[in-house]
Amino acid sequence: MTTYPLSFPAGALFATAQFTLNVTEAVNTTRSGAIQVMQLGDPLWSAEFETIPLTGEERAPWQAWKVALRGSIGTFLCSDPEKAYPRAYGAAVLALTRAGGGAFDGVATLDTATAYTLSLSGLPSGYQASAGDMLAFPWNGSRALHMVMESAVASEAGLITVSVEPPVRLSPAPASGAAVDLVKPSCLMRIMPGSWEAPAAAERRAIRFEAVQVP
Q1: Which H, E and C letters describe the chain, residue by residue?
Q2: Closest Cα partner for 55 from 207, 159, 167, 186?
Q3: Is the peptide bond before 5 cis (omega within 30 degrees of 0)?
Q4: Poorest-confidence range of 29-33, 99-103, 199-203?
Q5: 61-96, pLDDT tens digit by residue?
Q6: Residue 35: is its pLDDT beyond 80?
Q7: What is the rounded CA–CA span in Å between residue 164 and residue 147?
Q8: How many CB atoms lie within 10 A of CB 78?
Q9: Considering Cα of 172, then 173, then 175, then 181, what sign does the dihedral take?
Q10: For the segment 47-66, what is each residue's pLDDT rounded down to a tens digit?
Q11: Average pLDDT of the segment spanning 182-196
Q12: CA 45 vs CA 95, 98, 146, 152, 187: distances in Å
């Protein structure tokens, strides 16, 4: 039985992967030349993927994955391959130790949230969060994915407050104590209808598709 969200097929490798934060807004120019802007909905992440060139045999797991999504109904976990690890550490972040002891597994704890900040605990002493790092946590049956806007350093006790975009959705408020992924942070996405390209060919060919975040 198919259980959502799916993960990418085992060993998935991408030649390109572009994450973009899409803002839906209406723009009006008045007679005086002033520009009025109204945001119509929450900003959502979208992504464009292109795999490495694949043989027919290598394309088969991808084709099964696409069928399992049942068009654009099924969801999958999606993260930005370029931001799988915090910029200051790379994969070596998993060799750090939490403040107070214990191995750090790339997961912090959410203490409090405002519209543009997240306060976290359970980090290594002096942990460095860099502008451009990503983090994710459960929210209202889905997942919130945010980017760190300004570099910050955790206290000796492993506490940090970071500024983030897009704005944190506060209705309902994120759960205090939620696990915050700093390694391979992901959100739920769906395939954009009509974007899937997986041409059959004797030579190696890439698979291309677009996806959008499930709010």
Answers
A1: CCCCCECCCCCCCEEEEEEEEECCEEEEECCCCCEEEEECCCCEEEEEEEECCECHHHHHHHHHHHHHCCCCCCCEEECCHHHCCCCCCHHHHHHCECCCCCECCCEEEEEEECCCEEEEECCCCCCEECCCCEEEEEECCEEEEEEECCCEECCCCCCEEEEEECCCCCCCCCCCCCEEECCCCCEEEEECCCCCECCCCCCCECCEEEEEECC
A2: 207
A3: yes
A4: 29-33
A5: 999 999 999 988 999 999 999 999 999 999 999 999
A6: no
A7: 5
A8: 26
A9: positive
A10: 999 999 999 999 999 999 99
A11: 97
A12: 30, 31, 9, 24, 9
Report the distance separating Cα 52 and Cα 81, nearest Å: 13
Whether residue 207 contacts residue 51, with contact meaning beta carbons closer than 8 Å, is answered with: yes
* Structure token pair of residue 213: 């975040």
Query: Per residue in 120-132, pLDDT tens?
Result: 999 999 999 999 9
Q: Give the residue among 97, 174, 91 at the shortest CA–CA distance from 136.
A: 174
Tokens of 42: 């929450």
Half-sphere exposure of 125 (CA within 13 A, CB side): 6
Q: Which amino acid is at 141?
A: G
Residue with tokens 């109204």: 38
Half-sphere exposure of 103 (CA within 13 A, CB side): 4
Q: pTM of this prediction? A: 0.89
Query: Which distant-in-sequence residues (6+ apart) come within 8 Å of 33 by Cβ?
Result: none
- Max Cα distance, the chain (Å): 63
